[in-house]
Amino acid sequence: MTKAKALVITGNGTNCEMEAAHACRLGGFDEARIAHIAELLTGEVSLDDYHFLNLTGGFLDGDDLGSAKAQANRLRYAAVEGKEERLVDQITRFIADGKLILGVCNGFQLLVKMGMLPALSGNYLNQTVTLTYNECGRFQDRWCYLKVDADSPSLYTKGIEGGVYLPVRHGEGKFLVDDAKTLDAIEGKHLACLKYSDKNYEAATMEFPENPNGSINAIAGICDETGRIMGLMPHPEAFVHRTQHPRWTREELPEEGEGLIFFKNAAKYVKENF
Ligand SMILES: NC(=O)CC[C@H](N)C(=O)O
C-alpha cells in the first residue's frame, strides 16, 4: 500500500507545526514532514511527494498587512528555484491530483487570501471571502462549540455527530463574503461545514462569546466543493488527547480528543485513494 505522507509548512511565523505533525501521525499518516517554506522555494521539498498539505496556525509575517496576506502573495507568485514553475503551479497540480489541504487558523486565513477557498466552480485562485478583525475588537482565546453540517462534502468532518468542541485563538477570525451571491452559493452547496453554536450543537449563533468573532452566518470553517480542501479557525490539532480539554480533571472524557477525527479522516481518505 502507498505510504500516506503529510507535509506541514513552517516558517515566517507559524507556531503550530509540531502539533499538526503529531496529529497527522496519531491520525494514521505514515510520515509527517515539517518543512520550512524556504525548502519548498529552493526545490529541496516538493509537494508532488506528499498527499496531505497542512497550513498551520501562527502569526505569518507578524500579521502585517492583515493576517496571512504577505504569505498568500508569496505562495501565489514566488518561483521555485531551478524550476520552470512557481510554487502555485505545484499547489494547483496537488489539487488536480486529488490530494488534500487543511488550513487551520492562520492557515485558513492563508487559503482564503490565496483564493483557494471556497473556490466556487473550481476556481482556485480567486478571492471571494476573507477573515478579518473580530467584531469584539480583541484577540479571542477560548473553547467553542462547533456544529457540523452533516450534508457538507468535507471529508474531514465525516462521522462527527452533532458537533465538536475545539479551542480558538485569533484576532482576525470574522468571516466575511464579497457579496450575497457568494454566501448563497456557500450555504446552498453546504460548504460551511462548521458553525459556532450553542453547547448542544442545535443552532448556529451570532451571540458573543459562543460566536467569538462575529462571523457572518456563524461560519467557523468552510470547504471546497470536492470536500478535500478545508479551512477552519478552531484548532483540531490542539485537541487530540483528553488532557488537552480545559476540564479534563473534572469530567469523564474519552481518551481521544475530538480534533483527531479530522486527521484520521484525512489519513483514511489517502489510504483508500492513493
Ligand atoms: N492562532 C492563529 O493562527 C492566529 C492567526 C492570526 N495571527 C490571528 O490572530 O488572527
Protein architecture, described:
- With 274 residues, this protein is an alpha/beta fold.
- The chain has one domain: Rossmann fold.
- Helices cover 24% and strands 21% of the residues.
- The chain contains 7 helices and 11 strands.
- The chain has helices at residues 17-27, 37-41, 69-77, 87-96, 106-114, 180-188, 260-273; strands at 5-10, 31-36, 52-55, 100-104, 129-132, 140-148, 163-170, 174-177, 194-196, 219-223, 229-232.
- It has a 9-stranded mixed β-sheet with strand order 2-1-3-4-11-10-9-6-7. It has a two-stranded antiparallel ribbon with strand order 5-8.
- The longest helix is centred in the C-terminal third of the chain and has 14 residues, at 260-273.
- Bound molecules: glutamine.
- Residues 57-59, 63, 67, 105-106, 169-173 line the site of glutamine.
- InterPro entries: Class_I_gatase-like, PRibForGlyAmidine_synth_PurQ.
- GO terms for molecular function: ATP binding; hydrolase activity; phosphoribosylformylglycinamidine synthase activity.
- This is Phosphoribosylformylglycinamidine synthase subunit PurQ.
- It holds the Pfam family GATase_5.
- One of its GO terms (cellular component) is cytoplasm.
Brief digest:
The chain is an alpha/beta fold and 274 residues long. It has helices at residues 17-27, 37-41, 69-77, 87-96, 106-114, 180-188, 260-273; strands spanning 5-10, 31-36, 52-55, 100-104, 129-132, 140-148, 163-170, 174-177, 194-196, 219-223, 229-232. The chain has one domain (5-273): Class I glutamine amidotransferase (GATase) domain (Rossmann fold), CATH 3.40.50.880.
